[in-house]
Amino acid sequence: MSTFSRKKFILFILLGIIAIPVIGYAYQFIKKLFFNKTITGEIKSASYKIGHLLWKTPFKKITKIHQTKIVIIGSGISGLSAGRALMDKGETDFVILELENAAGGNSRYGENQAGRYPFGAHYLPIPSPDMKELISFLKEVNVIESFTETGLPIYNEQYLCAAPEDRLYINGHWQSGLVPDFGLPDEDKIQIQKFHALTDALKYAKGKDGLYAFTFPLNASSQDTSFIELDAITMKEYLIKNKFTSEYLIWYVDYCCKDDYGTSVEETSAWAGLHYFCARRGTAANAEEHDVLTWPEGNGWLMNQLKVKNTSHIYTGQLVYQVDKIEDEYQVVSLNVATGEAEQWSCSKIIFACPQFVTAHIKTNIPELKNRNYKPFTYSSWMVGNLLVKNELIEKGGVALSWDNVIYKSASLGYVNSNAQHLHRHQPYLNLTYYYVFDDKNVSRKKLLQMNHSELTAIMMNDLMHVYGDLDKQLVRYDPFIWGHAMTKPLKGFIWSNDKAHAAQPIHNNIYFAHTDLSGISVFEEGFYQGIHAVNELFRDIK
User: Fold this and answer.
1) What is the spatial distance between Cα 235 and Cα 126, in angstroms, rounded to a whole number?
2) Helical (H) or strand (E) element with 136
């Protein structure tokens, strides 16, 4: 197999910055120069082709009619949490309808000879003491084993992220932690220290209403104007306004915004940007405030625990395309993807636990549902690609392979070692899960969905070959998962907008909404609480 010369390496770097529309051709040329094998793999994605059938109606004549009390549309974390909340209240007469062939939304996962790996969300920070419902759930599934006499949770060590937790490749060296430090000028280090001092103070700041400025769920945050008005500017504007000009700090904040929201520092609402740093106040007897919980399959493990109580209620392969009100009854009509038949689910209550871009295309005779304003909801597009590699990669100097591995100024968010939690560390193969968010200004969603395996592989290879010169030798296969609508964007003015607040309001005291779209931040905590909130509203209206 060929090796890199200085000339070839320079050529490789130049090719790496070619615009993405032609990156597939660049990759083919690179492969001829350096690779003696074809990189195999399979592109996976959400079932967007089936979802696009929403645009083509009418469907076939209804062949089956089901009767149930409550229909939940969508089986992501919000839908599964809603189902669990119904069961906890003793309600069992409900169904969960899911378009995909498996429940879980972006918490789904894959598996190969090296083990499980996530298709999306991959960790949960330890929750704050006031997140009692989430703490109760974690105790129920033995993530929390017990509590001390003073009430501090004791976490199952198996699920706390194993060391080394994270590292950053910067100035030719792997440093510990993701905050830039190695080789930085003193002035930049001072600015970073000041920024962390500011966010540490804001973490415990409260408004005049006595509520934390930033917390989970979002609707429990302070409504004090001095905090809410931060939603009117971007995080980049906030940094500059407060004299945070260090390129290293701005890069780090940009990375954090993209990591949780899929939006850059120039796009993200300053309120949302600060929420990332200030909303979590986790406490534990055997963990630090910043520690996270993770599993080889990422949040797929948590999803499976939520799914346990709901298993018999979930109907997969059901594309809901029409919701009508007929006298005092609601009729939910779905296409059974496997049989091609249309089925009707007659009910008295509905919980929409699907994204707003899906709800927008469902046909309905209900004016309040049909005329909702869906335009403010915009979405980021992601590639979450799994690299199956031989456990023989040659590392650069510095900290050893960690759970989370990030490259300074990379276009990607780096990669997670999905085998980091395995008790047996010396496996012959590893799953490295690669995260890349697309800028729709350069690559449209339509273009992304048209890209072939070589083009998607080229994006990853052009990035990771900077830190793994022997990646082509050790890579067994690459399986990219494409999320065309990965998560809603918390753009400035969106989090506390009237449009978003109105979209969360129930209709007829019979139709409810539960999804992270409605908070503006797509994280597990929000999905979990959205489901609980919808069920609480449903039971309140019954009374």
Assistant:
1) 25
2) helix 132-140
SS3 per residue for 412-439: CCCEEECCCCCCCCCCCEEEEEEEEEEC
- Residues recorded for the chain: 543
CATH number of 124-160+187-290: 1.10.405.10
Q: Return the sign of the alpha-carbon dihedral for residues 424, 426, 430, 432.
A: positive
Residue 314, beta-bridge partner list: 96
Q: What pLDDT band is residue 54 in, cutting at 50, 70 and 90?
A: low
Report the chain's terminal Cα–Cα distance, integer Å: 72
Going along 113-221, which residue ranges are E strands?
Answer: 115-118, 124-125, 144-147, 153-155, 166-170, 173-176
**How far is 373 from 379, CA to CA, in rounded Å?**
15
In angstroms, rounded to a whole number, what is the distance separating the alpha carbons of residues 137 and 487?
A: 24
Residue 21 scores a pLDDT above 90: no
Q: Using CA of residue 128, residue 88, residue 160, residue 109, what is the dihedral sign?
A: negative
The identity of residue 29, as a single letter, is: F
Show the tokens assigned to 230.
Answer: 């931060």
Least confident of 138-152, 197-211, 433-447: 433-447
Contact 376, 499 (CB under 8 A): yes
pLDDT of 418: 95
Which DSSP state fits 73? Answer: E
Residue type, 93: D
As a CATH number, domain 48-101+316-374+497-542 is 3.50.50.60
For the chain, what are the domain ranges?
A: 6-47+378-488, 48-101+316-374+497-542, 124-160+187-290
Tell me the average pLDDT of the chain.
91
Domains 6-47+378-488 and 124-160+187-290 share a fold: no
Confidence label for 55 from pLDDT (cuts 50, 70 and 90): low
Q: Kindly report the CATH number that applies to the domain delimited by 6-47+378-488.
A: 3.90.660
The encoded tokens of residue 438 equal: 């697309």
